[in-house]
From TrEMBL:
It comes from the Eukaryota. GO terms for molecular function: heme binding; iron ion binding; monooxygenase activity; oxidoreductase activity, acting on paired donors, with incorporation or reduction of molecular oxygen. This is Ferruginol synthase-like. PANTHER family: FLAVONOID 3',5'-HYDROXYLASE-LIKE ISOFORM X1, OS08G0547900 PROTEIN.
Length: 509
């Protein structure tokens, strides 16, 4: 081979190599500049599912120490992202709220509600209409004011019943749950129903609901491995299908009983319409913008009954537990009550704004024991960037407020019960979700719409329990503040306490 024949070959080679080099350097797909978050490895197919521990909020907090404030884990084929810093949560619920306002309902929720209630319906016009209806028609301040008569009646019943139980053990959570359920049922019915029917429906509701709430809180393998969904390995779907008809029957009887009395029934709220009546009338207005059908009425009722009872009863149980554990706190609450309410009087809702220390005790309890520690998970409707990481569309996003509420970078002595921290700076901490260090009711478009009602239900009852009674633990019992994770985070060991009357009032005799 002579020199002339080598040149074209070499030239061709150089050109080819140059083209490859050019494409390699400049045209190769760019490395993802925003990687998906780091996270623990799991097993093939199952991901991290086999390693989940019962107290998910504790485990998620521990993992954040290793992987940072935004990390991922695969649960089966579902990519989950856990976020646990105030600045990143702000990016989710404020800066990119419309992307993250979707939900990811578990199979059990779909079976129970059909996914058409406010909690589980996807972000969009339907959800907006349902939520607006709920907030505007039912939770307006005039409606809340008018329904005080029912809350007060139930609180009086509680007091009378506790006087008869003086000196004996009371399961606080169970007792308060029954009370809050009655409050809700009476608000729905405007107090027109036969008390016996309320009692019957109430006790059946209690039984079905506690099972439902447990079911909703259980991680379900079928949610994470859709290929296994048809086998329903844990039997969760089967159990939800078994319970759903009983729940629907109870809602049906709630509605039909109200319809019977709608013509003749006189509300105790000075002729004001009760909640169920408002909903039933909207059902009749077929052409109106807000007209709804029976399935929507039942979905809203489900949210009110489930959202309004377990959460409020649970936080009261936690407050009572903290107050009993900290006698100096109990002393200060009772001093304040004596000063504001007076030893001859019973608590009224009008006293509440003046009970600043009780407010601080409640807020501190919400900080340490938020009833919904991971909020209700979100599902982004498109990929987005949070904290420099790509959060892929349709993953499940957990916002770990439990860990933020105990973050030493945010709170001094974070694990100690110190209500005074909320006295100094009370204006900075409300429940509306604008302070990203403190989010017991969530934040953004999906923030809890029941805050005002919850506050009224909790504060009045709590103040009454502490004003009229002294409480102590049964002999030999030690206070145990262990938590049990679920859709609502309850006290692991139910609080049993013994009431003794501090003050006697003739009206409760
Ligand atoms: C102590 C009492 C309560 C607590 C701690 C609480 C907490 C929460 C939380 C954390 C969320 C999720 C927020 C988010 O994803 O950002 C939520 C949603 C919701 N809550 Fe509450 N809640 C309470 C009482 C109530 C009451 C009394 C009602 C109604 C009667 C209610 C109805 C709802 C509804 C309908 C939603 C779904 C909102 C939506 O997805 O648009 N809650 N709640």
């Amino acid at each position: 081979m002579d020199g002339y024949s080598v040149v074209p070959i070499l030239t061709a080679l150089i050109i080819t190599v140059s083209i490859f080099w050019y494409f390699w350097i400049y045209k190769k797909p760019k490395k993802e500049t925003h990687p998906i978050p780091p996270g623990p490895r799991g097993l093939p197919i199952l991901g991290y599912l086999p390693f989940l521990q019962p107290n998910l909020h504790h485990q998620f907090t521990e993992l954040a120490k290793k992987y940072g404030p935004v990390y991922k884990l695969w649960l089966g084929s579902k990519l989950c992202v856990v976020i646990s810093s105030p600045s990143l949560i702000k990016q989710v619920v404020r800066d990119q709220d419309t992307i993250f306002a979707n939900r990811d309902p578990p199979i059990s929720a779909i079976v129970l509600t059909g996914g058409i209630d406010i909690v589980w319906s996807p972000y969009g016009q339907y959800w907006r209409d349902m939520r607006k209806l709920f907030v505007r028609e039912m939770l307006s301040s005039s409606n809340l004011e008018a329904s005080y008569v029912h809350r007060r009646e139930e609180v009086e019943k509680v007091v009378k019943s506790l006087y008869t139980k003086a000196g004996s053990s009371v399961d606080i959570g169970e007792f308060i749950f029954a009370t809050e359920l009655n409050v809700i049922l009476n608000m729905l019915w405007g107090g027109t129903a036969d008390k016996k029917i309320i009692e019957r429906i109430g006790s059946e509701f209690r039984e079905v609901m506690s099972k439902l709430v447990d079911l909703l809180g259980k991680p379900n393998v079928s949610d994470f491995l859709p290929v296994l969904a048809k086998f329903d390995v844990q039997g969760i779907e089967k159990e939800a299908k078994r319970l759903a008809p009983s729940f629907h029957e109870l809602l049906d009887s709630l509605i039909s009983e109200r319809m019977k009395t709608i013509e003749t029934g006189h509300s105790k709220d000075g002729g004001r319409k009760d909640y169920l009546q408002i909903l039933l009338e909207l059902k009749e207005q077929q052409d109106s913008e807000t007209s709804i059908g029976l399935p929507q009425i039942k979905a809203i009722l489900m949210d009110i009954v489930t959202g309004g009872t377990d959460t409020t009863a649970t936080i009261i149980e936690w407050v009572m537990a903290e107050v009993l554990k900290n006698p100096h706190v109990k002393g200060r609450v009772q001093e304040e009550l004596a000063e504001v309410v007076g030893l001859e009087n019973t608590v009224e809702e009008s006293h509440i704004p003046k009970l600043h220390y009780l407010d601080a005790v409640l807020k501190e309890t919400f900080r340490l024991h938020p009833p919904i520690p991971l909020l209700v998970p979100r599902r982004p409707n498109r990929s987005s960037i949070i904290g420099g990481h790509t959060i892929p569309k349709d993953c499940r996003v957990f916002l770990n407020i439990w860990s933020i509420h105990r973050d030493p970078l945010v709170w001094e002595n974070p694990c100690e019960f110190i209500p005074d921290r909320f006295l100094k700076d009370s204006g900075n901490f409300d429940f509306t979700g604008t302070n990203f260090h403190y989010l017991p009711f969530g934040s953004g478009r999906r923030v809890c719409p029941g805050i005002l009602l919850a506050e009224r239900m909790v504060r009045h009852l709590l103040a009454t329990l502490l004003h009229l009674f002294d409480w102590k633990l049964p002999e030999g019992e030690k206070m145990d503040l262990s938590e049990e994770f679920g859709i609502v985070m309850r006290k692991k060991k139910p609080l049993i306490a013994i009431p003794s009357p501090r003050l006697r009032h003739s009206k409760f005799a």
